[in-house]
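Thread: Modeling a multi-component assembly for a lab meeting

Hi all, long-time lurker, first post. My supervisor asked me to bring a structural picture of a complex we are working on to next week's group meeting, and I have zero experience with this. I have the sequence lines for every component (984 residues in total). Could someone generate the structure of the whole assembly? Inputs are pasted exactly as I received them:
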Amino acid sequence: MKLEEQIPRNALVWIIATQFVLLFPHLGRIPLWVLVLYAATALWRAMVYLGRWSFPGGYLKSSLTVICFSGVWVSYGTLIGLEPTVALLLIAYSLKLIELANQRDAYMLIFIAYFVCLTEFLFSQELLITLYMCVAVMVNTTSLVALHQPGQDRFNFSTIRRAGAMMLQALPLMILLFVVFPRVGPLWNVPLKTHTARSGMSDFMKPGDVASLSLNDSVAFRAQFEGEVPDRSDLYWRGLVLSKLDEGAWRSLRWRDIPGDQRRGEQPELVGEYVDYSIIMEPTQQNWLYALPYATTRDRGILRSNDFRLVSPVQVQDQKRYEVRSWLEVPLDVELGDWRRGVDTSLPEDGNPQTRVLAQQMFEAAGGDPEAFARSVLDMFREQAFFYTLRPPLLGENPVDQFLFGTRRGFCEHYASAFTWLMRAAGVPTRVVAGYQGGEVNPVNGTVIVHQFDAHAWNEVWLEGQGWVRIDPTFAIAPARIEFGLEQALAEEGSFLAETPLSPLRFRGVSWVNNLRLQLDAINYRWQLFVLSYDQERQYQILNRLLCSVGQSQLVFLIVGTWALLLVPLAIAMVWRNRGPRLDAATRHYQEFCRRLRGAGLPRPGHEAPTDFARRVAEERPAWAEEVAAITRCYESLAYAGDGDPAALAELKRRVRAFRV
Amino acid sequence: MKGVLDNAALGSARETPMKELVDRAADEVGKVLLGKESQVRLSLCCLLARGHLLIEDLPGMGKTTLSHALASVLGLSYNRIQFTSDLLPADILGVSVFDQASNAFSFHPGPVFSQLLLADEINRTTPRTQSALLEAMGEGQVTVEGETRALPEPFFVIATQNPVHQSGTYPLPESQLDRFLMRLELGYPDPAAERQMFVRDGTAPKPEELIACLSLEQLAAIRAAVDEVHASDNLLDYLQRLVAYTRNSAEFAYGLSPRGALALLQCARTWALMEGRSHVVPEDLQTVLPAVATHRLVPTSDYAGDASALVHELLLNVDVIPG
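Re: Modeling a multi-component assembly
Sure thing. I ran the full set together rather than chain by chain. Output:
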């Protein structure tokens, strides 16, 4: 192998290091045997380097490929989808190592590595991950640098300095591109994540659903208020309205369930106090957005549903930022339509007979007044032996009967569900609302961090003259849940985040851990605010602010113009530096003559001197010999004999013009 | 093309044009060294350009024959030194001997005091003795025992050497190599020439029997005429491109020195004169380049070929005409 095709040993070490650096963040979502494969290929390549083993043969490589593909298929059950595809890419990236023989292979491997860097961002775009991937890019660039340093026959850590310097040099351009590069929609759709699928709430609620969310300490969304954060017990983030009882589960109304004339919903009169805030929501793969009632937004592409929620017409696939103004005192649905009343009072034909009886009794005792009736139900929850627990017993048939008269232990969804049953059995329009309650206020930047364990279910009861009124039966059982959060409410039981013993949230008591966590969250919030949510609209806004008001078309001109300003002088400078020397007239004519001969299939290579060329042409085309010799003589006397005679120049010009191939 | 072939116009008091003189000399040398016209002409070119000549090849290839023949044809007084490993500088330069008769030291000049010095197998001797020739070749004078003595005019050195990898050789140092204007390799003769050698064996002329073709005056006139040969800007551009390539390209351990570049130009001028031209054309440069540059260039250790491959690459990669 030629020396320039060899891979320097230093580069080889860096290439292998890059593989492991890139594999590391994927470890949680790929089968473990891929790690084994990485170790095996690295070992193999090292053995090849030491001269003990040789590169694998064609059969072995093909069978390895087949085995790995089958492995992915067995591990995931499919080859389609994001994780299997990424796993395949990672495997191919690893297998290529045992084919790494010359520089061309090394280039391919390094360029695949850059692509592998990108795949990590399909799963997470968090700040820490981004920083880690920067390091990964640097390590990969180091292998590229090392590849261009021949003769490095041992591992050299300082190579990374050059790569670091290159990345620092690229940083301003990266920032500039980030700010001004036109944000276009995705050119292709990334397949859905098959395994992490949907997070957060689903559009139906069975007993136990919310409780299972309570085990999850990941962030659902962050809200940043302009001004004071409202009282914690007012932070009822509505996400879903569950009106329909479907085989034991509360379910929201689907689009087709709603009659055409009801789909727009009432437009309430905007009066009273309001709060402004923005929300950055983690991807849910669902359509609904979370907000305090009654929420309005000026963001384009966000719709309002007929039950006063905000919805996105497309599923929230990435972190989404939206601005909301919530009118806290606006009554909703002061006039209740017949269809709505029908939906929100309907119950199945049979089931839970004891509950129905109890409802009738209590309703009559309350004198037929829905408000007094609701209060008496809450009193019942408060005064009788009901318990708030994350570990309720399982319920069988007639679950509400079992709950109210038997177990009496439950989580918010049990109480919300039982409350709805009781109210509806008495004919009072009531529905379950699912969302999040409360949130943690970060003292560092005033953000309200809402975690998955803040998931909650409560009720809305329609009262004459007041519209939909929020009633939270959980508040009656466990006021601490609303006032202080889940951790306090479950303090006795000790079940808060019991399954994630290392969650930093469990160490809120240790002040420096808590401080660190909140500081990190504040940084993360800024990251999301300024980097992740920087979309076309934000770009437009920011450029507008930076450059005073410009129109869309002007902006395009501006971006193109910036590039032109940057690149055109660069291009001119490069052309200027690479321009040939200025040719004298005789040489120009002679070059023209050479061009004509090239057209006739007789090119003059750069190193061939005129007389040699003339001789060769004379041999190949004797017919032209005389004229070619004359022109060459002419040129030679002008260019080399120092014969600056204008007549000779004119003769050369004439002869070249007259020369026909 | 007026006056180009009319070399007589360049100098005065010469009936025979220079080209014919040189051609005749080359033919004369060709009588003893068959089938080596280009090397013969190049070696003449070297001497006419006031340079010293190094001939390198295997034993028995005609190195000594060529140098003898050149000496005879140029009509110069010559001395021959066979370099051996025990040769001392004094054996070349001369010694002072106490003369009892005159009761004083008298200098006995060494073989270096001649118009043409044949240094046979120069790399068989130690670097110390090799270096004794340095001053003589560079400056036309020698300093012995504190006294500087001028060498005859003209003064040529024709050295032969065996390839360096042969046993019992001391490679010439770069500074010494640089003193030689050209280094030639003879190579095997072609079959026809070799057959002719076999056939005329015994009747072949001896180098000493060749007739002198050039007088000292003619030699001086030719040397003077060399300086008159015109090198145009275009040609100097080409020369500079060649030199720049050797200095910038990664294959060269180091580039051509200014002395090397001047040597190249000087040889190209002489070659142009020998071709009967009053100006240099790129072909002249290309013709003399391998002989002039190969021993001055060293490839880097990464480069797969040797210096002559490198020079070939140099010629291929530099444009004769810009644009």
